[in-house]
Amino acid sequence: MKTIILFTVLAVARADKRCRGINLGDRYYNLDILKDGINHLHDLAIKNQDSALYFTFEDLTNVPARFLGCFDMNSHNATVIDGIRNATAIAIDPKTGKTFVGGADGLFKINERRIPERLPIVDDIQYMHFKDDLYFTNKRKEAYKFVDGKAILLNELRGLEVERLIVDNDNNIFYTNNKELFRIKLGTRAVNTHEEHKADCLATDLYYKPYICTKNGLYSYNKYKYVFDKESDNLKNLKAITFNRVNEPIYAVYDLLIKLSLSEIPCFED
């Protein structure tokens, strides 16, 4: 089965024998499989300060099912970090490298020895995002901001059901509920819909430009037209995506972690 999945991914990425990478927007990237065989990947975030790629996954032989993993981009070694029951969500402060992980028992911080330390939030956390502050959602689909050790309900999303959320570089909150995509400006209550998209995952790049993963490909937000532009047809059904210190994508698809590296030489099919 793994061989079939690998072949499928590579076949999509390398449909043309001359071009062995992926076009993303107007740029051409080489494709590198970092690791395979990870069961049911969920969330993904990179700490660029030490090139640690954190991810959540499922282990069907143990209870609870979800665990936190760490892939060292330098040594290519992968380890499991114990101590967080049902690890579901990861968020990293790109400036300081502070790494937060949410699970069934609440909020944790990963210290410099990659050991979880409990923070004073006891809630069943489902999703997290960091921009200036830490944002998170819980199992009740409520959205909060973590400030000075306290959880503050987001006024903009009060009374709304929120599963995932991100904040962009133009003070927009994008959020999903049952994969339906919405947008609301910070400080307002006016909700806009992007009903043409069903988003499997949300992310922002190094500059907080929003991206959504869908079954039809990867899209980025055009803040001048208020729409999502398609970046790639090849990157379909991604589980999660993050960006390294030079804004190159790293993503999870099937049981694979894949990195795209910007090529100085473009590739043309004709």
Description of the molecule:
It is a single chain. The longest helix is centred in the N-terminal third of the chain and has 12 residues, at 2-13. 35% of the residues are buried. The strands form six sheets. Strands 1-2-25-24-23 form a five-stranded antiparallel sheet, with no helix packed on it. It has a four-stranded antiparallel sheet with strand order 3-4-5-6, with no helix packed on it. The chain has a four-stranded antiparallel sheet with strand order 7-8-9-10, with no helix packed on it. It has 270 residues and is mainly beta. It has one helix at residues 2-13, and strands spanning 21-24, 27-35, 44-47, 52-58, 66-72, 78-81, 89-92, 99-103, 106-110, 116-118, 125-131, 133-138, 143-147, 150-153, 164-167, 172-177, 180-185, 191-198, 201-204, 210-214, 217-222, 227-232, 240-243, 249-253, 256-262. The protein is 4% helix and 50% strand. The radius of gyration is 18 Å and the shape is globular. A hairpin with a 4-residue loop joins β12 (133-138) and β13.
Structural class determined from secondary elements: mainly beta
CATH class: Mainly Beta
CATH superfamily: TolB, C-terminal domain
Q: Low-confidence spans: pLDDT under 50, at least 5 residues?
A: 1-16
Strand order of the largest sheet: 1-2-25-24-23
What is the H-and-E element order?
HEEEEEEEEEEEEEEEEEEEEEEEEE
Number of H- or I-type helical stretches? 1
| Rg, alpha carbons | 18 Å
Helix content: under 10%
